[in-house]
What we know:
The complex is a heterodimer of chains A (751) and B (442).
Chain A: H1 2-24, E1 28-33, E2 36-41, H2 53-68, E3 74-79, E4 84-86, H3 91-95, H4 100-118, E5 124-128, E6 131-133, H5 135-142, E7 145-149, E8 155-157, H6 171-179, H7 181-190, E9 194-195, H8 196-202, E10 207-209, H9 219-239, H10 251-260, H11 263-281, H12 286-301, H13 303-318, H14 321-335, E11 350-354, H15 358-368, E12 373-377, H16 381-400, H17 406-413, E13 416-419, E14 430-433, H18 439-450, E15 458-461, H19 468-472, E16 481-486, E17 495-500, H20 506-518, E18 522-527, H21 534-550, H22 555-565, H23 571-578, H24 580-594, H25 603-611, E19 624-627, E20 630-633, H26 637-643, H27 655-675, H28 682-693, H29 702-709, H30 711-725, H31 733-740
Helix pairs in contact in A: 4-5, 4-13, 5-6, 6-7, 7-11, 11-12, 12-13, 14-28, 15-16, 16-17, 21-24, 21-27, 23-24, 24-25, 27-29, 30-31
Chain B: E1 22-29, E2 33-34, H1 44-59, E3 68-72, H2 83-90, E4 99-102, H3 108-121, E5 127-134, H4 145-156, H5 160-168, H6 191-201, H7 206-225, E6 235-236, E7 242-243, H8 254-258, E8 280-290, H9 291-296, E9 303-312, H10 322-334, E10 343-346, H11 351-361, H12 364-371, H13 391-394, H14 401-416, E11 420-427, E12 431-439
Parallel strand pairs in B: 3-4, 3-5, 10-11
Antiparallel strand pairs in B: 1-8, 1-9, 2-8, 5-8, 6-7, 9-12, 11-12
Amino acid sequence: KMVTRAVAALSRFTIRARCILFAARSHVNCEIKGDVAVIRISDPNSKVNTLSLQMQKEMTEVMDEVWGNSAIKCVVMISSKPGCFIAGADINMIQACKSTEEVTRLSQEGQKIFEKIEKSPKPIVAAINGSCLGGGLEFAIACQYRVATKSKTTVLGTPEVMLGLLPGAGGTQRLPKMIGLPNAFDMMLTGRNIRADKAKKMGLVHQLVDTLGPGLKSPEERTIEYLEEVAIDCARGIVNKKLALTKEMNMMQKIQDHVMSYSFVQNRIYSTVEKKVLKQTKGLYPAPMKIIECVKAGMEQGPDAGYLAESQNFGKLAMTPESKALVGLYHGQVACKKNRFGVPEKEVKTLAILGAGLIGAGIAQVTVEKSINTILKDITEEALNQGQHQVYKGLNDKTKKKSITSFERDSILSNLTGQLDYSGFEKADMVIEAVFEDLAIKHKVLKEVEAVIPPNCVFASNTAALAIKDIAAASKRPEKVVGMHYFSPVDKMQLLEIITTDKTSKDTTASAVALGLKQGKVVIVVGDGPGFYTTRCLAPMLAEAVRVLQEGVDPKKLDSLTTGFGFPVGAATLADKLGIDVAAHMAENLGKAFGSRFGGGNLELLKTMVAKGFKGRKSGKGFYVYQSGLKDINPELKEIVESYNMMPTPAVSSDSDVQYRLISRFVNEAVLCLQEGILTNPVEGDIGAVFGLGFPPFLGGPFRFVDNFGADKLVEKMKTFEEVFGNQFTPCQLLLDHAKDPSRKFHRLIH
Amino acid sequence: SMAPVVSTKSKKTLSKTGVKNIVLVDGVRTPFLQSGTTYADLMPHDLARTALQGLLNRTGIPKDAVDYIIYGTVIQEVKTSNVAREAALGAGFSDRIPAHTVTMACISSNQAMTTAVGMIAAGQCDAVVAGGVEFMSDVPIRHSRKMRKTMLSLNKAKTLGARLALLGSIRPAHLAPELPAVAEFSTEETMGHSADRLAAAFGVSRREQDEYALRSHSLAKRAQDEGLLSDVVGFKVPGKDIVSKDNGIRPSSMEQMAKLKPAFVKPHGTVTAANSSYLTDGASAVLIMSEEKALALGYKPKAYLRDFVYVSQDPKDQLLLGPSYATPKVLERSGLKLADIDVFEFHEAFAGQILSNLKAMDSDWFAKTYMGRTSKVGSPPLDKFNLWGGSLSLGHPFGATGCRLVTTVAHRLKKEGGQYGLVAACAAGGQGHAMVIEAYPQ
Lengths: 751, 442
């Protein structure tokens, strides 16, 4: 009897103790279901769970309790947030660190927690629904078993590399052992998201759980419950030895694993991967090489060396300007996914697009995908047919990749109506014109459209260079006119540049931004003017590129100089992609607007090319000749270039000089856009340059580049160029201001 | 002519002014056999023919008194795509009686019957035979699309060289056949998989499902032993024995059933071969008439066919919830409450599907959130529910089940002395059906 009373008293005490701890805990909650501890994670202050300091602290407490409670035999780790397991470490936590050592310590603490998880005497099952990324994935792979839902939101990945970092909590050590070197490198070096079904095939998760539809609770709620039920069964199965922890392997996998165990095979993989990384990053991104280094250290010198390399390299990477730039871009991207103009009065339910060309059809595709009724209008059946085919092909490619079923493809396509007349425009909430870049044609369609659309319908013009106020001049309701500059190919390029005039109403802007965000775009909103922001930055750089060609640098060399600086596409290739005719048109227009500042290269060179039919990629010939997938320098180009030959000035013509001539004109124009108020803030300037024009991401955009490189150093370089070339290199006032006062920065200083 | 007889027993009649009384004269079916057994060498129209002949024998109706014949089927034999016509001709019906075939997955013969009701109500016909047939022992397995394309081009090739070139283009990949799948075209999900997810969504356990399946088999066995399955007509299968009983009724034990591994969702699923309906061969037929016509021909009808509804929902997550949507709707049409119903016959695709539907019907939350209703309709009491077995035990020839349900309701109403019966069924495509049946006055 005494014993019973004592036990009762004791259990009362533990219950009370637990309650007290519960009250103090806000992020981690533990429910004991018989012999299973179900640990539920939910950050009350955010839509997603991150491994913040608070989360780590509470998790450590709870785990210590679990390990200390002999009634608990196994553990299920689950998030009670729909759509998110753990989205990663808290970036702000890393950013708050002031030194390499501090970040290394963070990494080591994470490593320690996960080591304890990995060595847990009580099996821990990670039950994954929604994003399981970065530190979240490292947590999950430290657990003994993983169950994931088949939900489309369930993705596993190590995106650290995209922030210039590496998986710093054991990821570089556990992943290769779990899924093999090639898959682990693929995940860590690309940072791509792995869907649940793929993760199962790779051996990243053990079991999949279906998502559920309506029952006696909402589908989301019940799916999480079901996941928990299955995970509890798995946990008990492990304890009862009914469930094996070793993965089932087929013959092929066994052979592969065996082959991979040879060090010369591993060495071969390292060198292949290193070569590939160097080729792709041009040595400009330190993180991928560090990832390889950590994996190698662990595989060759054992776990202690591996974990040490991981934490030290994590610390080093966090302090690099590359990582800071990439983190800055991440924050910028998040900011540009919000509508700072508020909720529009009317949601766009029917969109009409004029012009079924590349851009028009691309806009149609990203719109129908969001279940918005879309009218695609052109003036010829041939053009319409081509546009509709482009939309079909875009969606069908997704079906081939199995990201949508053929049925989903058809049902998405049912939102598209192709037509040659204006029927149905009376129901349109917005019209986007993507017709030829000619003011007279734009005016013509604007008038035609205004005759048929309802009064509250927005008229958006997709143009790369024409001023929106000039287009709006023909409008009866200029407050409803806005610019929406999409980038080609629309389904791949993330940026949308929205242009507002003095007369554009706030609601019109809000409506355009809302549509862009719905289409999945990163949106910047800029003021009106020739070339707005993006085209205006691109034009002087291309003018300089033409001058460089005239100085005798061939297109391949020009490309390697630009890609060597970090642009994903070389300047010559970019011009070919854009279209030489488009580039010439743009250069001419902006040249008229801005005068000699936009000079440099001889416009006639481009015009001669156009006259000869060298319109770039689309015509098969431009700077390059495109034949059956291959590209080579256009042999007829030499003759044209020679007729516009210019003598290079040796003092400003080294490879590095050429690179800075190109980049400084881009950057100066960007800063001028901020100075003139075309840009509202530097963040949008950086986002626009990186996502729209391919400005080197590791530099973080023109403004971050000035901050890091130093405005004074840039001004100094520009002055040297100015002496030779004149006002094309005259630094703008804002840049001069920053050069004078080194404490002035475009971005808030990060340690 | 005789005046329509409508009695008022304890409950009111569902007769409506201005709406014709339409009656079920009688209904029959072949024994339902597991596919690949005694019927294996037949063709679908053979089964349908047998049901039609059985109906002729049972009712003694003159062959020229039938105005129209309608059949329901799901997996079509391409040679007899209008199986109604082939079966009618073979059964000895006059070649002057038009016949057509309908398809609506597992409610195909319900669709055949309600089409008949519509024709009679519209005054276009007085006596219609409706039925359904399914033959899973042989299904069309096609050449691959590539192979079919080559073969079709071969027809058009004019020269020997062109033909040889086409034949030479055949690769091993061309030879892989295309099998029909019991999967939704729109979602590519098999029905069993969807049923397992549905059971999980409603929190129906494996044990509950096994218990329900055991109940179905036990009740079917009892009904068979007691001779209650009087709609079954014997079938002399050419070259084989006379078949006179359903052969899939196999009451097992909970222990035996618990040993089975899940069939669709592995390893943690709950739907198994033992708690699902199985592939079945079989055919059914009913004779439907206007009440005047039936009485004029001297029949004593078995039941009135009253209100019916079709419903449809999301084919992914609510594929098998048709009965939950259809039941309250048809009751409303008839001005009845669930408690007024004496006999329930629901199609049992899966034990998990039936139990999920029962839970959905008993949930105010589900009624409000998904059906736009103010409250739940309620769950049918099991002591009135599928008392002579169901599709799980008797078998489920997709196209033929609907007529079995209606005939069973009529027979049970008579046997149990009830007045109102309710048929409900789910179907692929996320569709459903329900019908109210009223006993014919004794």
